[in-house]
Amino acid sequence: MRLLLIAAMLLPALAAHAHVGPHPEAGIAFDQHLGTVVETDLAFIDAQGKRETLREAIGGKPTVLLLGYLGCKDLCSLALPGAAKALDRAGLEPGRDYRAVFASIDPREGARTLATGYERLPPADRGAWSFVGGNAASSGALAASVGFHYRYEADHDAFAHPAGIVLLSPDGRISRYLFGVSFDPADLRLALAQAGQGRTGSLSDRLLLLCYHFDPATGRYTARILDALRILIALCAVGAAAFAWRVVRRNRPAGAP
User: What is the pLDDT of residues 185-232, one digit of tens each?
Assistant: First the structure.
């Protein structure tokens, strides 16, 4: 019991130092800029120390974009493997069905640090990923274009930032946001199918998109078919009432009011 009391006292203090989500009072937020086309000519340094533009990293595929920094001990250490795990479980072919880009917001992270990102991924997935950074101007412009608001905290030598991924179409248009550090494989598969503008994903994925709609407040897909069923039930009830009224009218004796 005493240990539980101590833990309860420590939890608020620990939570105050952990960047576990948006902090609007500190300017930390993830605004949604749906439909915006990001500047694909933004140039970064890749894990080999070579210049790589965002267009090259996207490679003409629907793309999962994750912003953060590899030195992060909080959200990024969860979001990167969370995205990789969801992509694996979504049953998608790396490089064929999607590309993934991790863009570092820490300009101090050069090629050597960026290369460590691949160590956090399953070997079979590494060819679909690009780790880019090393350019404060490009990373800042990219973050601003997707609504990713962060700040550097000198006292902790750390960046406070929100958590989530951005889905880009092959031409760099923002298609969807999924928030958090773990992602539902079905949601991610549908988001990539939508980002691919019908050219990515199976026929069943495209049919599912007809039955699901995206709730931007929760960052989840919800069943549109449920709304359709509610409408159908209401119409059936109205129809049944009208039919009953007609039957009553038909069977009413002549001259009755």
Answer: 988 888 898 888 744 333 333 333 334 444 455 555 454 444 544 454
Q: What is the mean pLDDT of residues 60-76?
A: 91
pLDDT tens sequence across 121-137: 999 999 999 999 988 89
SS (H, E, C) the chain: CHHHHHHHHHHHHHHHHCCCCCCHHHCCEECCCCCCECCCCCEEECCCCCEEEHHHHHCCCCEEEEEECCCCCCCHHHHHHHHHHHHHHCCCCECCCEEEEEEECCCCCCHHHHHHHHHHCCHHHHHHEEEEECCHHHHHHHHHHHCEECEEECCCCEEECCCEEEEECCCCEEEEEEECCCCCHHHHHHHHHHHCCCCCCCHHHHHHHHHEEEECCCCEEEEHHHHHHHHHHHHHHHHHHHHHHHHHHHHCCCCCC
Domain annotation covers residue 11: no
Domain residue limits at 151:
18-183
Structural domain contains residue 119: yes
